[in-house]
Amino acid sequence: MRLFLKLFEPFLQWFYHCFDRIVINGYLSFLTREGNVVYFFRDVRGEPVLTKELLRQRTDAYQCWVENYAIKNRIPILWAEKGVRKKDWLAPSCQARQKAGRFGVYFILRSMEQGPTFAVRHPKFPTQDPNYRILRQQRSRYTHYYFYILDPLAGPMVLRVGSFLPFNVTGYFNGHNFIERELIRRKIQYHKDDNRFISVSDPQALQAAADALTGEILQERIDHWALILGPKFSLKERSLCGGLRRFYAVSQVEYCRNFIFKRSWPIQSIFRRSCELGAYLLTADRIAQLFGQRLTKRFKGKLQTVVERIEHGHHVLRAYCRNSFLKAYEKAPTFLRLELVSNNVKDFGLRKTLRYWNDLRTPFQQVTRALGRTSGAAPQCSRPVRRGRSLGQAGHPGQHQSRRHQTRAPPPDASDGSAAPEGQRQLAHLEHGQTPSHDTGPVLH
Fold first, then answer.
1. Which is it for strands 246-261 and 196-200: parallel, antiparallel or unpaired?
2. Taking a C-beta distance cutoff of 8 angstroms, is the pair 326, 373 a contact?
3. Where are the domains of the chain?
4. Are 172 and 160 within 8 A, CB to CB?
5. Could you tell me where the DSSP H helices lie in 232-290?
6. Distance from C-alpha of 293 to C-alpha of 286, rounded to nearest angstrom
7. 115 forms bridges with which residues in the sheet?
8. Cβ atoms of 260 and 14 closer than 8 Å
9. Which residues are CB-contacts of 340 (< 8 A; sequence separation ≥ 6)?
10. Which residues, including other chains, have CB under 8 Å from residue 72's CB and lie 6 or more apart?
11. Is the overall model pTM greater than 0.85, yes or no?
12. Which strand (E) or helix (H) includes residue 211?
C-alpha cells in the first residue's frame, strides 16, 4: 500500500477506507427449534393441538398490524416490481426526508421470497395421544416486508422481516451513510454523491468517523427497529421463553479503499494497466497470498481472476477466493475503489456474531492493502496508457511502440518526464528504505 501511495501521490487528492455494504441476519434462536415451537404453543399459549391454522394466526396478526401501521403513519406500501432498482426509485423520497430532518419509516415493500418456516404433519401411524403432531422445518415462499428507514444514527437503512415463524429479520446498512450522519453531527462540510465522498473539509475527521462504526452501534440500531417493526410478543411469552431476544450474525460485509484523483487520465492509465497485468499476474498462488490462505489438497472453493465490463468502457477486475472476492473498479472518472466482499467471514478465521465485529477490520485492511500493493506494482513495469486508448490497445511490458508514439508530445501533467520518471525516482527511494510513515488515513494533498 505504501508503494501505491508513494508512486501516485502527485496525482492524488486524498483517500479513505471504510466499511461499505453490511448485511446482518437476526434470529429468534428460541423459535428456530421444533421442540421450542411446540412448547411455545402448548405450554405458553395453552393450545392443545398444533395445526397449520394456528401457525397462520400469528402470520395474519402481523400482516394486519403492518397494514394498519402503514395507514396510520401514511406510509406507502406496495408490492415490489420485477426489474426496478429500488434504490433509484426511492432515492427522491429519502433525500427529501433528509433535507427536512424527518426520521423513521418512509416506505414499505412487500415481496414473495423463500425463507425458513415450519410445517405441521399428521403421524403416519396411530398414537396414544390424539393431539400428537409432527413439526418439521422447511423452506417455502411467503411474504417478506422491506421497511425503508431513515435512521438518525445509521442514515438510510433497510429492515427485512419475514411474516412466518420464526420471523427472521435482516438489516441492510451502508458505512458511507453512517459516516455522513457522523459528519453532520460534527458539523463538517462534505460533498457526497451516491455511495462515495467527493470532497470533505477535514479528511482526518472523515476517517475517524469511518473507524467509529462498531458492532454495538449496529446491534443497537437493528434491535431498535426490530422491536418497533417486528412481530409483538406479550410479557408472559417473553418471560417463559427466555426473553425471545434475537441473535445477530454477519451475512455479508464489504470493505473498500477509495482513492480520489485530481484528474481522470491517471486513473484510466492505472486501472487499465492493472487490469491487463492483474489478469495475468494474479495466479492461484498470488490470490491465496492476498487472502492469507494456504493452498492444500483440502482447499475447497474457486481461485479465479476475471475482468468484466459492466458498462461501455468501464471494467471491473475481480479475484475470487472461496466465498469472498476482491474487486477494483472506477467508481467515477476520478474515483478508484479497491473493495473486498466477504459472504462468509469464517474463511478468514473470524466469527459471525456482532460481538466480534471489531475483529473484522484488521484482516480486511490487510487484504485490501495487499491488493493496493499489487495495483501499485503493476503500472510501474511500463509507461502509463495515454488517454483515449482502449483496454486491448495498451502495450505489454517490453513491447516496442511505433515511432509516431515515441515522438508525439505528451499531454500536460502526464508526460513521460513527469509520470514514469517520477514513479521511478519514488521507487528508488523505496528501495533505499525511505518509505513514508503513514499508510492509512487521508493525509495527501
1. unpaired
2. no
3. 21-252, 263-397+411-431
4. yes
5. 235-240, 264-281, 284-290
6. 10
7. 140
8. yes
9. 254, 255, 256, 324, 325, 326, 364, 367, 368, 371
10. none
11. no
12. helix 203-211
Phi, psi for 32 (deg, rounded to 5): -95, -5
User: Which residue type is seen at 204?
Assistant: Q
Q: Beta strand pairing status for 104-121 and 77-79?
A: parallel
**Neighbouring residues of 321: CB distance < 8 A, sequence distance ≥ 6:** 287, 288, 290, 291, 293, 301, 302, 303, 347
The alpha carbon of residue 386 and the mean position of all alpha carbons in its chain are separated, in whole angstroms, by 33
Secondary-structure breakdown of the chain: helix, strand, coil percentages, each rounded to the nearest 5: 40, 30, 30
pLDDT tens-place values along the chain, 445 residues long: 566 667 677 788 889 999 999 999 999 999 999 999 999 999 999 999 999 999 999 999 999 999 999 999 999 999 988 777 777 778 888 888 888 888 999 999 999 999 999 999 999 888 888 889 999 999 999 999 999 999 999 999 999 999 999 999 999 999 999 999 999 999 999 999 888 999 999 999 999 999 999 999 999 999 999 999 999 999 999 999 988 999 999 999 999 999 898 887 777 777 777 777 666 677 777 787 778 787 777 777 778 777 776 665 567 888 888 889 998 888 888 888 999 999 999 989 899 999 999 999 999 999 888 887 766 555 554 444 444 443 334 333 333 333 333 333 334 333 333 333 344 343 333 333 343 333 444 433 3
**Cell numbers for 419:** 509520470
Residue with cell 516496442: 400
Give which of 58, 118, 12 is closest to 334, Cα–Cα: 12
SS3 106: strand
Grid coordinates belonging to 332? 467515477
